[in-house]
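Problem: given the chain below (221 residues), write out its structure.
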Amino acid sequence: MQLADGSVQVPSLVTSANKAAWYKYSAVPGQVGASVIEGHVDSNHGPAVFFRLGALNPGDLIDVQLADGVTAVFKVTGVRRYAKSEFPAKEIYGPPDYAAQLTVPDALAFQEAIGSARRAARLRALRDRWVHAVRDLPQVQVLTPEDPSLYGAITSFRLRGRTTKDDNVALAKTLLDKHRIFTVYRDGLASGCCVRVTPALATRMSDVDALAAAIREIATA
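Solution.
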């Protein structure tokens, strides 16, 4: 929370030195924008949650576990150290106007150049590649019908008989933690929870092949 003097409250050094806190007025980890996560390096009792922060190097991965069970994965691109009085708050917390100005027009131009028909065909081909590789498994239940008029890129699945939130949060976590494949669990379906797969135009056929292999490994373990 934000205090009256404008500073951000951090976890208690006495009771929560080993915990990190997300500033709720910043972006949710994994969404566009600066996500602020605060914690202590050390305390009167010894090392705290960010004690090894200084050991990070570009290329290292940071996993942030969200309350809904999804894990957001970040890659370290640079390491900086500032005196408290010289902390560049605007640079760190400010909206990334330069990124939006540089990438949005290019992205729109790219989408327009591809055309809707080619875009749909590519996304459907990615979806079909992994679905057709696992649909024959008796342990796997693909929830999207095979009628091409009823699907695009997104398809949901689950392990047969495993319909609870815990089952599918765990499945999505295994895909990410062990296989580095990001999916999300879905709830609210009358038939139970599931895991949703959403390929993008940048997704490679080798990526969906890896997904199919991971699902096969999990289902037959």
